[in-house]
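Narrative of accomplishments. A recurring question from our advisory board has been how the design workflow behaves on a single, concrete structure rather than in aggregate. To address it, we present the structure tokens for one chain from the evaluation set, followed by the sequence designed for it. No filtering or post-editing was applied between the two.
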């Protein structure tokens, strides 16, 4: 791919970007208009985590059935897998601009369907539409920006897409918080997503197609007109010549690659080793639990003992803000620290953070407040039936109460101190209101705990360590680790692996949490993170500062840079086998 898609930048690239503000505002308009696709991607990831709290309140079937909650979250990911797979073909057939317009249309339709859904079934249909749009936009936005950016600042401009993804997640939490008191709550949360989709649709109608795609399709004059708007006069002719040579070379490469099947591809040593590292990083990025945190962070906060939906959303805003900040940190350090060292620092912190979370949730479940017969009898005729009939009711605590299922029960805390013994009552809206009227807190998903703030610290540490390393580096590595002639195919394989892993984690977290508990679930993520750390040390090469040709030579020679703490060797030294 001409120019490639790189998300690492240096200081001069940022200065060049800033100077564009007044020299070439057209270029920034192209980049940020396409980057709204990243914003939509991030917004959808974040908004459902908060909306789900209120969807469960409105639709009791969703509240009772974990599989429905997981489906509402994960069907968008399933749609994104299809959208990304179809989007690759559509990009080549119809162009980047048209695919973004189609993605915006699908996203807008999905937002309208979700906002007006009368039940869980139609809500899931809306999520699939949104997912299709997200899948197309997630791969098309950076591609369009890359092909419509001056070479000197291509990395800096493409990196705006990554920042807008995390910025979209942060925005979604702000929107969620803003509508907690509004009538319809979650309908506004999911419906607002239609506005940026409509905005991007209008902006893309006013912008041109990718000049590279136009040139490839034989529309050379149209491509040259756009390039003259992007590049300074003294550079444009050279860029046109470079584009011509690049397109001719790519057509020649694709002509030979069409004859290659997967088996032949895997027999190519550099490609096979590159795929091992690239696909492995994408799979581990999801299986260390990041989207559990992003999709379910308000739920996790409630599991830590914070009863209010609004409080859960407000505290989850911190994780989204830290995630956005981490994407900026990654841009700064990626070319200074190196990919591999950043990954190892990131995963080490993730392991520690997950250990903290596992320990905190173990304490919250084993040291929850007891159920008091006096407090329970204070409420007439609404005592939890399982508690009333239990032979060992004196041993019941809050967690035992919440596990009762015939019918579901909730814990109403003591009015003086939430950590003191409380009441175990039938769980419904009427009982919840009765509990709140007596200035008590109502718990149905987690129990009061003095360790709740430690869970927030654990979540914050997790994001602080994950975002700059495991959050960004897998995408950067997959844009540079493959030989040029295979980069599109291999990058597609790695991206598909990422979306499928995302789906598995999103679909299984709540069921896993119910089956073995939150503490053990985070412990499993921690063990997987240790495996990821070992994988990075053994299989992932350091590509900092290396041209594509040197990376290919290094993979052919199987250079495994175990001593990641040392300064990088010269390129020719890295290509030797260790």
């Amino acid at each position: 791919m001409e120019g490639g898609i790189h998300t690492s930048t240096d200081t001069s690239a940022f200065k060049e970007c800033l100077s564009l503000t007044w020299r070439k505002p057209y270029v920034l308009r192209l980049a940020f208009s396409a980057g709204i696709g990243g914003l939509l991607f991030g917004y959808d990831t974040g908004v459902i985590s908060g909306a789900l709290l209120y969807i469960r309140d409105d639709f009791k079937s969703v509240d009772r059935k974990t599989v429905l909650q997981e489906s509402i979250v994960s069907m968008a990911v399933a749609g994104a897998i299809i959208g990304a797979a179809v989007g690759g073909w559509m990009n080549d057939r119809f162009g980047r601009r048209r695919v973004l317009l189609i993605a915006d249309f699908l996203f807008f339709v999905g937002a309208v369907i979700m906002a007006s859904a009368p039940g869980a079934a139609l809500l899931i249909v809306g999520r699939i539409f949104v997912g299709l749009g997200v899948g197309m936009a997630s791969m098309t936005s950076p591609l369009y920006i890359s092909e419509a950016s001056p070479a000197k600042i291509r990395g800096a401009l493409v990196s705006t897409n990554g920042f807008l993804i995390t910025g979209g997640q942060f925005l979604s939490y702000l929107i969620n918080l803003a509508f907690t008191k509004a009538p319809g709550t979650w309908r506004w949360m999911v419906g607002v997503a239609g506005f940026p989709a409509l905005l991007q649709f209008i902006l893309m109608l006013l912008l041109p197609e990718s000049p590279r795609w136009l040139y490839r399709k034989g529309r050379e004059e149209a491509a040259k007109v756009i390039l003259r708007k992007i590049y300074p006069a003294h550079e444009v002719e050279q860029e046109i010549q470079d584009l011509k040579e690049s397109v001719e070379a790519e057509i020649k490469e694709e002509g030979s690659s069409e004859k290659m099947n997967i088996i032949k591809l895997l027999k190519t040593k550099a490609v096979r080793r590159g795929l091992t590292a690239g696909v492995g990083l994408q799979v581990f990025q999801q299986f260390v639990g990041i989207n559990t945190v992003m999709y379910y962070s308000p739920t996790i906060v409630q599991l830590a003992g914070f009863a209010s939906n609004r409080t859960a959303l407000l505290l989850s805003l911190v994780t989204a803000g830290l995630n956005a900040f981490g994407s900026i940190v990654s841009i700064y350090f990626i070319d200074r620290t190196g990919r591999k060292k950043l990954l190892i620092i990131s995963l080490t912190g993730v392991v520690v953070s997950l250990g903290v979370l596992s320990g905190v949730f173990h304490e919250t479940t084993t040291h929850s407040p007891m159920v008091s017969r006096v407090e329970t009898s204070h409420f007439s005729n609404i005592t939890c039936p399982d508690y009333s009939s239990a032979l060992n009711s004196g041993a019941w605590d809050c967690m035992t109460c919440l596990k009762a299922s015939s019918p579901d029960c909730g814990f109403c805390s003591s009015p003086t101190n939430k950590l003191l013994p409380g009441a175990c009552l039938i769980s419904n809206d009427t009982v919840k209101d009765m509990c709140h009227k007596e200035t008590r807190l109502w718990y149905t998903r987690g129990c009061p705990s003095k360790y709740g703030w430690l869970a927030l610290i654990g979540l914050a540490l997790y994001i602080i360590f994950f975002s700059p390393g495991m959050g960004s580096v897998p995408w950067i590595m997959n844009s540079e680790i493959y030989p040029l002639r295979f980069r599109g195919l291999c990058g597609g394989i790695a991206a598909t692996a990422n979306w499928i892993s995302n789906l598995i984690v999103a679909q299984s977290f709540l069921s896993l949490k119910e089956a073995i508990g939150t503490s053990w679930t985070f412990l499993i993520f921690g063990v997987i993170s240790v495996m990821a750390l070992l994988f990075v040390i053994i299989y992932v090469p350091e590509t900092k500062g290396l041209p594509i040709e040197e990376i290919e030579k290094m993979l052919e020679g199987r250079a495994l840079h175990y001593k990641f703490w040392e300064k990088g060797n010269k390129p020719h030294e890295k290509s030797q086998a260790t």
